[in-house]
């Protein structure tokens, strides 16, 4: 089996601790539906990453020192994984060419992935997928190392004790459709998995990938600790946390009140949750979620009108409707459209969408620019997506740095208006914009 590319890749090297030192797991699936008290670590690290990046950029020497240490750790891990695989060669002989073996065979041969392999054995369809020939299988497995299964909140309970249907979904969520070696991941924002979800209209649930000073992260909380193990039917990457299928959008937002408390308060004051539950959205949705800072930018008087007056509630409700695109899920590199029955990757560097919202016939304008593995969103010509691709069980969350205000009714598009207010607006202008939709 080929050695991981972590040592030669600066980005991947930064991610790697030795296997014995992996942090313990807090799976996303343990967020309580009713209270949302257990934080799954899905967004906070992503929300704070830009701050961390700025700090480290100012301390170049400290960064270089940390990088050298990470490269040494990467080298140790690469050698340990290869040694573990060599121990399982036929007749005690070392077989270094593992590319002829399937993904299924390789995870069984490695002592660091034995728990995931044991779990796979109970699901024939998963075995078939991981053991397929190259002609009928072209996949990428993000395999959790054994340490990832040690969660103090579960005691000694194992995933093979759980509901079989839920466990099979969890296994499928670790399987990316298509080959994603390290270099391709560096230019990827999300990737489809073998888990197809009814709440996404039957489309593939996606994994979010990102590159930062901590290395490559999957869904914000799981780090790639070993990359590019080639198999006959795809690629294997080792990760240090189990990848649990994400919860619904509402539960996701509730789990992080420090970032979305104002939005959650708006939902509460307008009884918006009951409204949304009555809307038929079988094809998923895109939720543009204003952060607490986005609401602050509206201004004190406008917020007071929306939140503290009886007459302001209907305008607040209209604003919330304007931030939800039903039956269409827009990721930074894929688009699931169940309005026009279209699913496609975003192939060009620039993409433009006019998306229908829950607010009558109003539309949101979305421009996506991709360059060198990075994605930049601009909504209605001025609002930026500060955190992209918060994958959810029933759609995606794109976090905004400004609250979206619909254009005047006479405007042809969402950008044909004075939307250069950077999120601020006085009460009378706000009422003029929203009045036609009430």
UniProtKB/TrEMBL annotation:
InterPro entries: Adhesion/Biosynth-related, FAS1_dom_sf, FAS1_domain
Coiled coil: 60-87
Keyword Coiled coil: yes
Domain of life: Eukaryota
Domain FAS1, chain residue ranges per copy: 100-243, 247-404
SMART domains, A to Z: FAS1
Signal peptide: 1-15
Keywords, sorted A to Z: Coiled coil, Signal
Name the UniProt record assigns to this protein: FAS1 domain-containing protein
Provenance organism: Ophiocordyceps australis
């Amino acid at each position: 089996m080929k050695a991981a590319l972590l040592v030669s890749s600066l980005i991947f090297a930064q991610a790697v601790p030795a296997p014995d030192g992996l942090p313990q797991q807090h799976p996303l699936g343990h967020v309580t539906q009713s209270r949302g008290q257990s934080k799954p670590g899905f967004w906070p690290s992503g929300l704070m990453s830009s701050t961390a990046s700025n700090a480290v950029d100012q301390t170049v020497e400290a960064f270089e020192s940390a990088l050298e240490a990470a490269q040494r750790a990467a080298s140790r891990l690469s050698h340990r994984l290869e040694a573990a695989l060599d121990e399982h060669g036929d007749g005690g002989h070392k077989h270094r060419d593992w590319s002829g073996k399937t993904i299924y065979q390789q995870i069984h041969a490695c002592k660091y992935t034995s728990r995931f392999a044991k779990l796979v054995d109970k699901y024939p369809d998963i075995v078939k997928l991981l053991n397929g020939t190259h002609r009928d299988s072209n996949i990428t497995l993000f395999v959790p190392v054994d340490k990832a299964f040690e969660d103090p909140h579960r005691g000694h309970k194992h995933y093979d004790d759980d509901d079989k249907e839920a466990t099979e979904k969890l296994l499928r969520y670790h399987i990316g459709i298509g080959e994603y070696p390290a270099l391709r991941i560096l230019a990827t924002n999300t990737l489809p998995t073998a888990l197809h979800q009814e709440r996404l209209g039957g489309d593939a649930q996606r994994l979010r990938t990102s590159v930062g000073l901590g290395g490559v992260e999957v869904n914000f909380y799981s780090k790639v600790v070993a990359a590019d193990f080639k198999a006959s039917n795809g690629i294997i990457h080792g990760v240090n946390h189990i990848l649990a299928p994400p919860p619904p959008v509402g539960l996701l937002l509730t789990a992080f009140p420090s970032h979305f408390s104002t939005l959650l308060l708006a939902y509460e004051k307008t009884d918006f949750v009951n409204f949304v539950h009555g809307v038929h959205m079988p094809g998923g949705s895109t939720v543009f979620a204003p952060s607490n800072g986005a609401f602050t930018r509206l201004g004190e008087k406008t917020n007071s009108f929306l939140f503290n007056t009886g007459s302001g509630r209907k305008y607040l409700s209209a604003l919330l409707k304007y931030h939800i695109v039903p039956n269409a899920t827009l990721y930074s590199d894929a688009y699931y459209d169940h309005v026009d029955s279209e699913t496609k990757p975003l192939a060009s560097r620039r993409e433009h969408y006019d998306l229908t919202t829950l607010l009558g016939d109003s539309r949101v304008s979305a421009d996506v620019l991709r360059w060198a593995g990075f994605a930049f969103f601009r909504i209605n010509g001025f609002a930026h997506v500060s955190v992209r691709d918060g994958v959810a069980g029933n759609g995606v969350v794109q976090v905004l740095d400004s609250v979206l205000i619909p254009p005047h009714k006479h405007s042809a598009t969402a950008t044909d208006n004075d939307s250069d207010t950077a999120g601020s607006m006085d009460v009378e202008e706000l009422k003029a914009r929203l009045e036609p939709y009430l």
